[in-house]
Amino acid sequence: MLAEQKRGIHVSQVELLCKDGCGYYGNPTWQGYCSKCWRKRTHKTETNRQENEFEEKKNVEKGRRSSSVMRLFWGSPSPPRQESPETPVAALKAFQSLEPGDFPGFLKVLHSSSSQRLQSQCTAFLNTIEAYHDLPIQKQSDLVQDFYQNIADHFSSLPEEQVSQMMEHIEKLIMTHLHKWVFCHDSCDDEQKDLTLQRRIKSLNWVSPQMLCVPYPNGGSDISDPYLPAITAIIEMDAKRAPQDKLACLSRCSQNVFQALALTNNQPANADDFLSALVYVVLRANPPRLHSNVNYIIRFGLPQSLMAGESGYYFTNLSCTVAFIEKLDGPSLNLTPEEFNSYMQGRRVPPQPLEGDGKKRARENREQLEELKKRQESVEQGVRALQEQLEQWVHCVQEQVDEVRGQSTLVHRCLAEALEKPTGNVRDHSLSALKDGVDQRIKYKESS
């Protein structure tokens, strides 16, 4: 069925790469370029040169004034304090001994005396950004990216893999503190775009896996949905503060998508299968503040995390997914414009999937349980009726026994009085026989 339909979502590996041919992943937000090439294109060389000249002049003037003040009070400037050459070496060795992902260990080394210079740089940068948090968001993004580049030089003597690990720790440290200042910043329209995208996804809640050509088990429900772990993972992305933690949620979501495709498809998943399934997951999840999260990762994430590797591939596909949802139309779902508009306006509902064996068995089990429940209620009702009848019978018998006992007591009393009077033998024999008859009747009533 899926093979007969023309897939509306198609993307090749080449289309995911940067338009400049650098070999890294591009992004629709950067008009198909990677972050490195995009920054080169958007930042004019002349503007940078002028800003650098202005900064140099300002630093020279500031240094001149400082030297004048120092000479005024101290006579001559004191030489700068020299840092022991063994101190940075010891710090680098401590950083190098850390296990991958050991962020608490990184913080412990950072707060040690051997890493005082690096700690001071991080603290000064955080204070600067917090003090100037009203700057435009793009300017703050440039400052953070420049800070990453400067700090990377501090670890330049380490192997490349360890440099990446140290920069991930630096990113987590910096952005965990700056998240409240730069996420969904007032200088941009991320919040409005979040609401627009959320309404767009909500209006597409009728899109079925079959329309997207997503391999999906027949008769599936929310409980048996193989994509449910992926949906949960991408929803958790908004709760994270560091860009790498958000990318970790996306990676977990994407891996769950591939696992679901492997369970529902007999052949290995390709790029089109993955992208279609990711579109379905996003439509089902409708993640909170998705647009803001994507832009936050783009602005403040490490460039190497977005340009290459699994995280870069997954993030590029997520960006393509958002762009696809924003432009989704009838031909993308193998629908005519009239059918697409009917679904969007609620005048038409998608056909229900065929009932599979698992759902059929579940339905039969539910019917059997309902039948057993009805039979149990009927039995319980009969038991209650029988119990009421038994109680009535016992009550009736008890009344008869009490009545007979009352009569027998009266008869015994009369007989006793008659026996006390002197009479003939025949009369005594008759009274004794009458008494025996009454006793037997009482015993018969009690036994019944």
Q: Please, could you describe this protein's structure?
A:
- Residues 344-363 are annotated as: Disordered.
- This is Rab5 GDP/GTP exchange factor-like.
- Keywords: Metal-binding, Zinc, Zinc-finger.
- Residues 191-334 form the VPS9 domain.
- The chain has 448 residues and is an all-alpha fold.
- The chain folds into 3 domains: 13-17 and 189-344, Up-down Bundle (Glutathione S-transferase Yfyf (Class Pi), Chain A, domain 2), CATH 1.20.1050; 87-182, Serum Albumin, Chain A, Domain 1; 357-447.
- The chain is 68% helix and 0% strand.
- It is built from 18 helices and no strands.
- It has helices at residues 13-16, 35-42, 45-74, 86-96, 103-110, 116-131, 137-154, 160-182, 190-203, 228-235, 243-264, 271-285, 290-300, 303-307, 309-326, 337-344, 357-420, 425-447.
- Helix 7 runs antiparallel to helix 8 (160-182) and helix 11 crosses helix 13 (290-300).
- The longest helix is centred in the last third of the chain and has 64 residues, at 357-420.
- The two termini are 78 Å apart.
* General shape: elongated
Strand count, sense and closure of the main sheet?
none
Number of domains: 3
Percent strand equals: under 5%
CATH fold category name of the largest domain: Glutathione S-transferase Yfyf (Class Pi), Chain A, domain 2
Highest CATH level, the class of the largest domain: Mainly Alpha
- Radius of gyration over alpha carbons? 43 Å
CATH architecture of the largest domain: Up-down Bundle
Q: So, the CATH homologous superfamily of the largest domain?
A: VPS9 domain
Strand and helix order:
HHHHHHHHHHHHHHHHHH
Mean pLDDT: 79
Protein name: Rab5 GDP/GTP exchange factor-like
Keywords: Metal-binding, Zinc, Zinc-finger
Region (Disordered): 344-363
Domain VPS9: 191-334
